[in-house]
């Protein structure tokens, strides 16, 4: 693919089906990542997202080693581990001690499955599969993969928007939310399932190593730019999509620049730029909770 880009130039690349596939899938993947990432940062669960990025690699390698489609391993492993982490945590929130204990073991298990796959008959001569999982292969998505990515990302986005208000209430003050009848634990479990699905989805675009950046950077930028929750949610989603577009365009324009790197560079630049903007003091969490509860 990079050889084609180098020989044809950006203008020609932008007219090719693989770029259209990447743009369509990337747009919806970024939308879901921005929405989920906003709550991930707001709920201080970024470490959970980091853990799931390692789980995505391990799950994909396990599926390949077993002769299955890597997407099956991505989604199943991320969702199951997200549920496990939430189940052993308090009120559906993963515990950092539990995550830290499993962190290195999960990555080591991924290395084990990678070795099994590369030494098996099905994996011999295809050692690049591990690299594509680690760093993404958004320009390699075919029409079927794009359709699956769009449908899953749409489902995640709709689900986040449906639970946004009670999830925000539970995030800002879970004790008050629980007292008012909000199912705090169920929301926590459901949210981490959405995080797991998004992690499996986004791995196809930016890879498991850079997955956390797509989840956290747009959300961190939005939180620094506004203290209004729903405006921040919309801003995080918009930033994620814009950064995806910029990254894909830069990668098409400069063939030597991998799309995952270009996307993360755009996200990092946007976050760094917020430090040039005067940061207003936040309103108290109690006031925000009151607004959400009454809304």
What do these coordinates show?
By secondary structure, the chain is mostly helical. Helices cover 79% and strands 0% of the residues. It contains 13 helices and no strands. The N and C termini lie far apart (50 Å). Helix 3 runs antiparallel to helix 6. The protein has helices at 2-13, 17-42, 46-65, 70-88, 96-119, 128-135, 143-172, 174-179, 184-206, 211-225, 229-253, 259-273, 285-294. The chain has one domain (18-294): ABC transporter involved in vitamin B12 uptake, BtuC, CATH 1.10.3470.10. The model has no long low-confidence stretch (mean pLDDT 81). The longest helix has 30 residues, at 143-172.
Taken as a percent bin, the fraction of beta residues is under 5%
> Number of domains in the coordinates?
1
CATH class: Mainly Alpha
Order of helices and strands: HHHHHHHHHHHHH
């Amino acid at each position: 693919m990079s050889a084609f880009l180098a020989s044809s130039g950006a203008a020609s690349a932008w007219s090719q089906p693989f770029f259209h596939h990447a743009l369509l899938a990337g747009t919806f993947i970024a939308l879901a990542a921005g929405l989920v990432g906003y709550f991930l940062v707001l709920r201080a669960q970024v470490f959970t997202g980091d853990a799931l990025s390692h789980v995505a690699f391990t799950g994909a390698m396990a599926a390949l080693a077993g002769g299955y489609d890597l997407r099956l391993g991505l989604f199943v492993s991320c969702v199951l581990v997200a549920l496990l982490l939430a189940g052993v945590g308090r009120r559906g929130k993963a515990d950092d001690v539990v995550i830290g204990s499993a962190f290195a073991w999960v990555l080591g298990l991924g290395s084990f499955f990678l070795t099994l796959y590369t030494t098996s008959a099905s994996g011999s001569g295809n050692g690049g599969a591990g690299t594509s999982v680690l760093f993404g292969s958004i320009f390699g998505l075919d029409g079927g993969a794009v359709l699956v990515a769009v449908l899953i990302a749409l489902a995640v986005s709709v689900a986040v928007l449906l639970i946004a208000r009670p999830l925000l209430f539970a995030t800002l003050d879970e004790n008050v939310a629980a007292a008012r009848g909000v199912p705090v634990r169920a929301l926590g479990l459901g949210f981490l399932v959405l995080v797991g699905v998004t992690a499996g989805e986004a791995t196809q675009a930016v890879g498991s190593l850079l997955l956390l950046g797509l989840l956290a950077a747009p959300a961190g930028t939005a939180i620094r730019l506004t203290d209004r929750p729903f405006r921040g949610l919309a801003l995080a989603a918009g930033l994620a999509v814009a950064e995806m577009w910029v990254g894909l365009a830069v990668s098409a324009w400069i063939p030597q620049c991998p799309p995952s790197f270009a996307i993360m560079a755009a996200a990092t630049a946007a976050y760094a730029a917020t430090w040039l903007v005067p940061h207003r003091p936040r309103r108290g969490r109690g006031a925000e909770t009151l607004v959400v509860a009454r809304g």
